Each structure stands twice: as structure tokens, then as C-alpha cells.
Fold these 4 entries.
Entry 1:
Amino acid sequence: MPDECAETDQKQSQATSNLAWFLTGAFIGAAAAILYAPQSGKEARKYLTDKTQQGRDAVETASQDIADASKDMFERGRKLVDEAADLFERGRKLVKG
């Protein structure tokens, strides 16, 4: 069972890393598009404002997802520790007789 938890933790870590790289790439791509797009100053500012808000929303959503995943991992870890402590206590009682 510990192998399953480690594998799940690794997958969640990889997903978080992938999301961070995706957001970084999206930001760089948006910045390049703005710099090379033929728009007026007003249109460019509106576009930047809209994209900035979309970026904030994406980061907020990703942050919440990461926080939720962290809470889940913490709870699973605490449960494993409690189970290990229980097993240790039962083993100690068996040895004592």
C-alpha cells in the first residue's frame, strides 16, 4: 500500500509540474502574440487586461486544485501514521503477553 501512495504522490507532483509549465508557456505565447500583433494601443491594452484576468483565474484555479490535493495527501499521510501507530501498539501488546 505504501507503494501505491508514493506512486499517486508522484503522479500528482508530475501533474502539478505539467500545469506550471503549461501556464508558463501560455504566458510566454501570449506575450509574444501581443508584441507581434498589429493592434492599436487601446486594443492591445484591452487584450492584455483580458489575458491577464484569464491568467489570474487559471492560477487561482490551479492553486485551489494544488491546495485540495495537498490536503488530501496530508490526510492520507496522517491516516497511514495512525494505522502504523495502531499496528505498533498491537505488536507491543502481543510481545508483552
Note: Residues 2-96 form one domain.
Entry 2:
Amino acid sequence: MTSMVKAVSERLRTRQDDPHDDYVFCTNDRFWFRPAYTDGKCPLCGAPAPGGAPEPPLLRRMDRSWFGLAGLAIESLGMLTLVLFMYFRG
């Protein structure tokens, strides 16, 4: 029974030669992780990933309040257009 459990655990254990996109392999605890979601550190042992954390995309770096402000500006222009249209056509 022990040899069967060991064989199953060997098959399930991650291997360093498994291909993964944008994943990094931690040699301390034999674990694959994405440095983009863990600030460039292994979530189990805290070891820094080679190359550090990648830079987040542009939309994640921007402050979301600017999107709200742009939406309010577009809505205000739309309401201004509607009011002027109704004033001169009505």
C-alpha cells in the first residue's frame, strides 16, 4: 500500500521541466507560481522570483477614478447636446 501511495504522489508532484507560460518554479518547495500575482515572491517560502514581479498592464496601473471622471464628462456632454437640441428644435 505504501509503494502505491508513493507512486501516486510521484506522478502528482510537479516537475521542473513542465512547460508553463509566465510561471516560475521555486526550487525550495518545488512549486510553480505566477510572480505577477504574488509581488515577485514565492507564496510559500517568500523567496524572490528570478526577474522579480513583471510590470502590470497599463489599465491596472491607472487610477480608476480617472475612468469615472471621463465617464461623467462624456455624460455631461451628451446631456448638453440633448438640452441644446431640444431647445432649438422644440
Note: The longest helix spans residues 65-89.
Entry 3:
Amino acid sequence: MPEPLRQPRAPRSAAAEPACPVEDIAQAYLVTAHGDAGLALRCAITDALSDLLEAERRARENSRLISRGFVRNGASRW
């Protein structure tokens, strides 16, 4: 299957601020989805939700570890 056509990009100067990676990420999803924008969007949403759930899991784990540490060290005596 042929790759989707890519839009030409303006060249970046070395002194230019780093560009937002949104276009590069969108292009990567489109290439992976063989140009199917709907599939690319669903994949991006799935990945974003997966990352969000993992971050929430880590936050809960860190909170649990911190709470356990306070109890073990007698911080409740304050």
C-alpha cells in the first residue's frame, strides 16, 4: 500500500525555538495507520488513555507508599 502524501514543511533555522511535536506525532500515527485518519485518531486516543491510566496508577502507588512511610516512621505523633 503506498504511503500517504506528506505536506512540505518550512525549513527550521538552527536558532528557531523547538516546534510543538503535534504535527510530527500526527504524521507518525497517519503513517502507521496507512493514511486512515479515523484509525490514526483512535490509536492516538487509545495511547493517550493508556498513558493517563498508567500515570494515575503510579500516583496512587506513590501515595500509598508515602502514607505507609509516615505510619512506619511515627509521623502520626506530630
Note: The mean pLDDT is 79.
Entry 4:
Amino acid sequence: MMTAEAPAAGLAPSGVDLEAGIRSRRRRRSLTWLAFGLVGLIMGAVWAVGIATSTATVNTPGAAATQVFGTAPGTAPASAYDTLVTANTALIIDFTGTWGSIAVDAEMFDVDLTLETGTYFVAIYLNNNATGWSVLQLEFRQVDMTCAAAGPTDWDSPAATSVMVIETEDAWAVFPGLASGGGADYCFGIRDITPKANDTAGTYIRRPTPSASPTAPIFVAMLGRSA
């Protein structure tokens, strides 16, 4: 009587097993290529939005956004430095299409340390939730004279700079090491940048669409003594 024998190790599989193995390998290859394709799509989407590669030309003028200074609450305690820092010229942001620009130097804050002693610092803070911007990045500059005396060439060669990247309400720019005494007048503001503010290392301003009306930023300058 004949008995069935199990195939020995190493023998070729049956036709059914062979076909199943081929289908399994094809599925694995298909899933592998699909995975690579998805990774490529994801990486391509991320890589395509780099700020360094973005270009645009829009010539249709839009509405201007004007910066307004805040006022201190009536119950604020008096400070010894209360009169040493004062608001000067408001920052005005104009638009051409989606690009922002600053037509004239914005001489925003005066600091007078001529009658003081010691070393001071100035911190400029965003004081509101400036929403509706694609990018709002501002390079504040320090000029070692009064705002009234400062001219275009002074803003071209500032004593110091500090870039404020406005992504949250915690945005700030700081200028340390301010000397006091005779001649210690300082002006802080933002240099003009036209026809569009596209300095990726400095002032860069865009709104999402030509009809968008972003919230104008409000700034507060605080003076303190460090030494």
C-alpha cells in the first residue's frame, strides 16, 4: 500500500505555493514604492515653502496699516525713568499687493540718559496680538543721537540692531550696554525699506492676500538700569 510523503526540505513548492509567493512579493514591492512616493510628496511639499526661495512681483497698491502706540494705565506707579524714554514717530507699513514696505525711517523711541549715571538697556516689546500676517519680521536699529537729529545716513550705519520676529505675543528686541552722561541720547526705530520689505535677515513683511488687513502691531519700549 502506498503512503503520502511530505516534501523534503529544499524541494520546489507546488504551483499554488509559488503563485502565492509571487503575489506576496509583488504586494511588498508595491507597498515599498508607495511608501517612497508618499515620503517624496511630503518632503517636496515642505521643501517648496522655504522663505529663501519665495519670489513675487505685485504692483497693485493696497491699504496701509499704521502702528499706534499704547498708553500706560492710569494707576501705573511712577518710575525714576518715566520721562527718560518717550514715543516719537509711529511706524507706518504700506502695501503693494502682498508685500509690505516702509517708505520713511520710523524714528519710534527717544531715550535721554544725559543726566543719568550707570549703564542701561532698552527692551522693545510687542504689546498686542498682531494677527493676519504671512510674515512680520522687523529690524530695530539704534542710533546714538536724538531722533530729531538722526538722518538717513545715520540709519544706514546704526550703532546696533536687533531683529524682532513676530510669531507670538512674546516678541521683543533688546539693546543692552547703553552708557549715560553727557551726550548719551539714543533713538530706536526701523529703517525704510522699499519697494518691498524682503530682507530675510532684517525687515521682511508680507500679508496673505492683496485684500487682507492684518492687525497693526503696537510696541512698548522699556528702559532699565543694568549696572
Note: Residues 56-72+80-225 form one domain.
